[in-house]
Amino acid sequence: MTKHNNIFILLQASVVALGLLLISCEDYLDKSPEAILSEQEIFGTFKSFQGFTEEMYHCIPDYTRSVYVADWNIADEILATTVDWRLNVHFDNGDYWYWYTTAWGWNQSYFMASNGAVTETSEWTQKGLWPLAWYGIRKANVGLANIDELIGTQEEKDIIKGQLLFFRGFFHFQLISYWGGLPYIDEVLGSEQLNLPRLTYRETALLAAKDLEEAAALLPSNWDNTVVGQETLGDNDQRVTKSTAYAYLGKNLLYAASPLMNKVSTGNASYDAELCKQAAEAFYNCLYLSHTGEAFYQLTEWDRYHENFYTLNGDIPGYPESLMTPRYYYNNIYYDVTTSLHHPQVLGGDGNMVSPTHSYVKNFGMANGLPIDAEGSGYDPADPWTGRDPRFYESIVYDGVKMIQGGTSADDERRYANLYNGGNYRDDLSGSRTGYMMKKFYPNEGNNVDNVPNKLMLPGYLRLADVYYMYAEAVLYGYGTPQSSHPGNGDYVLTAEDAVNVVRARANVPGVDTRYLASQEAFMSELIRERAVELMCEANIRFCDLRRWMITGQKKYREKTAIDFERGTDGKPINMKERVVVTRVVEDKHYWLPLPQEQVNIYPEFGQNPGW
Predict the structure, then answer these.
(1) 140 and 169 in contact (C-beta within 8 Å)?
(2) What is residue 332's predicted lDDT score, i.e. its pLDDT?
(3) Is residue 24 pLDDT above 50, yes or no?
(4) Which residue from 121, 110, 124, 129 is spatially nearest to 172, judged by alpha carbons?
């Protein structure tokens, strides 16, 4: 359903003062210039009601493309060239206001984007999480208020209601993950309701959990196996399912149970064991559906691992592992252009690139499963890129990697990644500042010589691998040990240790070493590292993780480092030194993003986040 300015009325004095598009059901149905549609015409049949519901899928931004070439990582993963308009540069400097207002008249932040309230499928660079989440919540409430208008089968009613409840819970969860506790909008509001106070994080999360739990009960495990899914058979992968609802129910509860969220809600900066148990149950239900085959989600095979993030045949990336992805808009001719964010000018990038920090790359352990600093790991500082975790080679470009496969002899001087000091890939202004480049989201051949065709990048919001990890964390703090498990079905017993090892096994990495199984603290240290390796640069997971664990202010996560080295005659690095390039500004106020002040000022019950 296309948005028209004269359909959606922006009430500046809205209930949460968030620029939310607030209108009555009657106004919503009355004001289209193309046609005057009755409630029955919009909500009376499954097909028309599903058309209404589909717009909520278009409220999920592609976080990699708030503009044509945008960065999105705001934690410790990457370091940008020396420019002052990159999103991560401002976050490194403690300027979290940059999520909302940025320079140059265009917005690097997918939280807002340049015109963040746009839902049309053609406007793929103008989708902001902040405004579209509120819009999606409003739309879900309008749909739920009219659910009884639907004349159809029970399956049709359940699927429509399940989607509406899911999106209401999902969008609230997305918002509170960054901005903290908020009013929970679960009805169609009018302009007279202007003083709803903010709830605590826990209160908001529990209301979202109620919606997500009900959604899980109503949604199908596989749309292809439903009557309504037959009309779109084979094209249902991106629709939300029972597994999606369970996964986000668990994630929402785990976040609420985490030290930061528990502290702001109860004053206790530790895990809430009861919420962890509830989260573990939700994650278990999601994983059990995959275990039995009722749901199609599975870990992607290792030889297709990159298809979680990009494909070379035009297929939508992510399946069968992704539980939630943004929409892919086929009119977008710029899906290749984003490679320039991670490529130096010598490979056709436009300069101002970002590169993985050495401090982050150190998370990638060895092929034997041990961290590089563990006794017996086999890590050799004189030969640092040999024998590493296979995911290192899928994610990171290091010195000497062959980048240009074809071309002519004229391309030889840039054929291999010259990332040593003085190499033509290394430049603070137009190349790598750190001695590394990103590989995870693009093939090496995606350069201006090989120019591999049909590459399509679309990393998702939530993968099954993350569900395994979050299950492990929830079990660890809900039930006590790495050997604990959620008491689920007898045919599927999954300990916290097992869950982590399932993901490691996909990459042919041995299970967690016994030295990390002796205590919660030891196992959690390895789980933190493991999440960094597997989930690098995906959907700001790292930013949320460091905050919710309350470790983002620790020195090891604040200092972004580079490696300086020369290339020896044998191609190995020599005279290698680690250098701190940026120390991130992290204060207590940086646990939450600031709220738009002009909207906060509308009524006193809402309030600004502390320190802002």
Answers:
(1) no
(2) 52
(3) no
(4) 129
- SS3 track for 249-277: HHHHHHHHHCHHHHHHHHCCCCCCHHHHH
Provide the pairing of β-strand 559-567 with 573-583: antiparallel
* Cβ–Cβ under 8 Å, residues 459 and 539: yes
Give mean pLDDT, residues 169-194: 92
Cα 543 to its chain centre, rounded Å, is: 10
Which helix or strand (DSSP H or E) is residue 291 part of? Answer: helix 273-292
CA 473 to each of CA 69, 174, 258, 289, 499: distance values in angstroms, whole numbers, following the listed order: 35, 20, 10, 20, 9
pLDDT in tens, 264-317: 999 999 999 999 999 999 999 999 999 999 999 999 999 999 999 999 888 899
Give the phi and the psi of residue 310 in degrees, each rounded to 5. Answer: -150, 155
Instruction: Give the integer Cα–Cα distance in Å for 539 and 420.
Output: 30
Tell me the pLDDT band of 192, cut-offs 50, 70 and 90. low
Q: Is there a domain that residue 136 lies in?
A: yes
- Range(s) of the domain holding residue 175: 1-70+110-195
Kindly state the greatest CA–CA separation across the chain.
77
Flag whether 57 is in a domain.
yes
pLDDT at 56: 97
pTM: 0.93
Q: How confident is the model at residue 20 (pLDDT cuts 50, 70, 90)?
A: very low
Judge whether 528 and 449 are in contact, CB under 8 Å: no
Is residue 535 a contact partner of residue 541, using CB atoms and an 8 Å limit?
A: yes
Residues 241 and 278: beta-carbon distance below 8 Å: no
**pLDDT score recorded for residue 35:** 43
DSSP per-residue codes, 204-230: HHHHHHHHHHHHHHHS-S-GGGSSGGG
Residues contacting residue 329 through CB under 8 Å, at least 6 positions apart: 121, 122, 124
Task: Work out whether the CA dihedral 344, 350, 351, 352 comes out positive or negative.
Answer: negative
- 580-603 residue pLDDT tens: 999 999 999 999 999 998 888 887
Total tally of structural domains belonging to the chain: 1
Mean pLDDT on 90-111: 81
On whether residue 550 sits in a domain, the answer given is: no
pLDDT at 29: 33
Domain presence at residue 62: yes
Nearest to 518 by CA among 483, 552, 542: 483
Contacts for 373 with CB less than 8 Å, ≥ 6 apart: 362, 379
